[in-house]
Model the fold of this input.
Amino acid sequence: MKRFLAVLLPLAAVLGTVTWLQIQQSRSRLGYPAPDFALRDLQGRVHSLSQQRGKIVFLNLWATWCPPCREEMPSMEKLYRQLAGPDFTMLAVSEDTDHAAVEAFVREMRLSFPVLLDAAGNLPHRLGITGYPETFVIDRQGNIVRHFVGPYDWSDPRYVEYFRSLIHAPAAQR
Done:
């Protein structure tokens, strides 16, 4: 048992340190440009982050096998239906490798926002995420201004108001 603990404790310390560093790294990215990407949606159309310049972007990374991701999707749909337009978009990037599973999930949840496929899993590494779901709020200039870890009730009036304030911010604050 002592040998087991002698190996387990240092390993736990290293993993804890790595997780802490990843969180600090993602926090330090606030105010900095989000990495551009080009991913296909379920219909095969390519969406890039650079195409969204001038809009507030809600960027969510998720997977069909993730219970917290499933939990927050209905509230994401509500937020999207309230705010979608020329100044706001939502991009949900699935990290699944099974295209059919994503299509079935989108049908089941009746999602109307763009769902993009990142089967190669490149975007999470570039954003430094630590799990699913994670959401990044990107301003009109392409900078990450908020980073949310875990599921949220995006239909909560506080979040709706937060996004409205970004959408309606005076040009000097954009």
The first helix runs from residue 2 to 28. DSSP finds five helices and seven strands in the chain.
